[in-house]
Amino acid sequence: MDDKYLYRDLSRLIVGAAFKVYYNTGFGMPEKYVQAAYAEELKLLNLKFEREYHLKLKYYDKAITKHYADFRVEDKIIVEIKIRPYLGYVHIKQVQAYLIASGDNLAIILYFTKDGVKFRRILNPNNKQ
Q: pTM for the complete prediction?
């Protein structure tokens, strides 16, 4: 069953880095601080990443707006960091839009709560793998 998970090993590293950040910073830090600490963890893991990954959302073939995903890791996985007690529908739809715009197959939302780090893997709804 484990072989059916897209980018399983890389996903584990990405989520593990978030747990390390939480362990070292605790709860309550501003999102920008957590993002900076997370970038340091990715560097320690020697993972290639782009911070504030630029995405152009298109209507037909015209770019009508741009957004920035928090991270794109190894040119494969979009990572969004949230400081909140739970994820809502709007957060999932936001990340799905990022996946559609980038053409990537997987995103991981890492959300830091008072009870620890939680995560959600989101697949690109347009890719049927």
A: 0.91
